[in-house]
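Thought: the user asked what 2-dehydro-3-deoxyphosphooctonate aldolase looks like in 3D. I have the sequence; next I should run the structure tool and report back without guessing.
Action: structure_tool
Action Input:
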Amino acid sequence: MGEQLVAPIAIDHPTEAPILVGSGQPLLLIGGPCALESEQLARQVAGTLKAICARLGIRYVFKASFDKANRTSLRSYRGPGITEGLAILSRIRHELGVPVISDIHDVSQVDRAAEVLDILQIPAFLCRQTDLLVAAAETGKPVNVKKGQFVSPWDMENAVNKLRGAGGSRIMLVERGATFGYNNLVVDMRSLPVMRSFGCPVIYDATHSVQLPGGAGGSSGGQREFIVPLARAAMAVGIDGLFIEIHPQPEKALCDGPNSLPLDGIEPVLAQLLRIRAAL
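Observation:
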């Protein structure tokens, strides 16, 4: 399969011209902690990554979930909730001048989230939920759909068609691994060109792809040591962006720490990945 050209889509930016994502455009980084833990931590991550991406020529979107409704345990940390979470994301968007993205889990959240977020994200477990996809598309916002661990890459065309059928035109698809037995995921790199063939920019989720779902008993584990090797492979295959969970202290993160990268080591990783992209 040759290189699939993807017409760029535009993501609104609070202080600059819209970000373009697709063929011929700079790499996009969607990065931040799994869930919002505190405004101070969110600002630290967003400000640091904004500066790093500016130095490297990467376009940046801050990611953190106001609610993680799909945690393993009832006791697992979910985030501050929609009201406080969107308020924090709004301040980061306007005061730090970076676009923001967060998960939506229910149709009732869509309109409130669309008032703040630059991109609406559909979690992997919900990628087949027609009402949620339609509601997200009807906002006119860009929609970032994570491929379910249980869904083939070619079946993601159905999600794309649902969004387009509801008027959505700015669609991104995310590869985050496929179920491989119990408590394990594996990445089929064929999924990247397959999903790009639908005419959508494709993002590789380097951190959830090494998650061990439920692998720590009451929470998910992860294999952080494989994040960078798999990101290198995805970059060589050809992608439009990277999704990376990044935390100042992953071992203390309240959510998905085992498959997050440390903030203080991310710049050389990104620089290396850019060199691979340039070689293409």
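Thought: the tool returned a structure. Summarizing for the user.
Final Answer: Structure for 2-dehydro-3-deoxyphosphooctonate aldolase predicted. The chain has one domain: 28-278. The chain has a mean pLDDT of 94.
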